[in-house]
Amino acid sequence: MITIVVPVFNEEESLGAFYHELTHVLPTLKEKYEIIFVDDGSTDLSLKLLQSLAQKDKAVRVYSFRRNTGKSEALTFGFLQAKGDYIVTLDADLQDKPTEIHKLLDRAKAGVDVVCGWRANRLDASKMKIISRMFNLLMDKMFGLHIHDYNCGLKVYTRDAAKSLRLYGSLHRFIPLLTAVQGFTVDEVAVVHEPRKFGKSKFGFSKVWKDLPDLFTIFFLIKYAKRPMHFFGIIGGLLLLMGAGIFVYLSIIWMMGESIGGRPLFFVSILLILGGLQTFFTGFLADLMINISQTNQTSDQAKNRFPLKFSTP
């Protein structure tokens, strides 16, 4: 069975055409299917259109949030509701074509857990292509996962890969990385991309600055979530070393008869030492909390922490 998860936010102009094209494509896949629309607090007629689709098509399920929470939360909710062995995500603006689903599905059935669409010939505004290329290059250099297009809305997941995700904020932009670090295989397939015909993009330069904190969040989660002392300890140690070095220098010139009480450098050294100690003990407390939480887990919870691919009864 295949589940199609479609996050929707103010897409009244494209929903009819999208549903028409999607339902013409799905029967050709020769699989049972369901379509889950997650309305993310739309303020236009999107929800009414979705409700009318659900009334005439038993394969359609519609969920609606009371307010706009973001694409990450909409996708996570859709994943939790999905019943399919393979889960397809697709935006409703028709820039990514439903006719391309079969390419990604074939790759997933060949043994790949997460297959990402790659808009090799992307037909968006120049500013969006520049932002996307910079982001993809940065992710490649920071984490070493060689994906050309992290943010294509068209993706196919195995059930386990999709349901392992708990997305919030802008973490949907990091799905390939989040699944890869859990041990799922990730690949991409070139897909056709269409120019926007309906509505307007929800993405612009302003979102880059709003989403930038999520990049630091994901960096910490990937690199140091299980060993925070390695992050805070290094920073705290460097601050302590700098502060101690300055203090030793001031102590030497004080012993030579010079006054240091009114020097700004004296206060800098004190601040560095205090900041270093505070940062170091922040890492120590974080490490201690992780150790205690893991020690207190039940045996079943402990088993679920490990990404087992197979186990005997």
Strand content: 5-15%
Name of the top-level CATH class of the largest domain: Alpha Beta
Number of helices: 11
Structural class determined from secondary elements:
alpha/beta
Instruction: Please indicate the count of domains.
Output: 2
Number of strands: 7
Helical content class: 40-55%
Largest sheet descriptor: 7 strands, mixed
> How far do the termini sit from each other?
26 Å
Q: What's the overall geometry?
A: elongated
- Low-pLDDT parts are none
Order of helices and strands: EHEHEHEHEHEHHEHHHH
CATH superfamily of the largest domain: Spore Coat Polysaccharide Biosynthesis Protein SpsA, Chain A
In short:
With 313 residues, the protein is of the alpha/beta class. Helices cover 50% and strands 12% of the residues. Strands 3-2-1-4-6-5-7 form a seven-stranded mixed beta sheet, sandwiched between helices.
Overview of this protein structure:
With 313 residues, this protein is of the alpha/beta class. The protein has 2 domains: 2-224, Spore Coat Polysaccharide Biosynthesis Protein SpsA, Chain A; 228-304. It contains 11 helices and 7 strands. It has helices spanning 15-25, 46-56, 71-81, 101-109, 126-143, 159-163, 175-180, 205-224, 228-255, 264-295, 299-304, and strands spanning 2-8, 33-39, 60-64, 86-89, 114-118, 155-158, 186-190. It has a 7-stranded mixed beta sheet with strand order 3-2-1-4-6-5-7, sandwiched between helices. Helix 9 runs antiparallel to helix 10 (264-295). The longest helix is centred in the C-terminal third of the chain and has 32 residues, at 264-295.
